[in-house]
Amino acid sequence: MKKDLPQNLVEDISIAVVLESETPESKVWNVYLINLKDTIIETVLITSKGYGLNNGEKVKTSTLRHMIEKVEAKSFAKVEAIDEEVFGLNNEYWLSYYIGKEIFDKKFIFLPESILESNFIKVPLVNKPGVMIGD
To answer: What global pTM score does this model have?
Structure first.
């Protein structure tokens, strides 16, 4: 049960939506997990889904599940490609991982219309423009 899980604080872990490349016709976006820790994280599980309103109608995307065996210290891993059409929705990423035998989990949510050029930073380690949440 959730109440039985330790309340381990997720720090130095971020999720970023990164503009991978662009042409006049299209843009390629990917979602990355960024490990800013000095330690490896393992058995990384991420579920992603989008939800919200579109023209007054409730919309929900499929839930996708991703497993990454390990993410080295001061490193990153690609989670999935993302389409600009869902930027108007809440885009939720629920992350769980282990450090040794301890489990950590956290929910990251990109709010509707938050993935905008005006919010871009140079995403650490990936060194590309994007929007990042987490620490």
So the answer is: 0.91
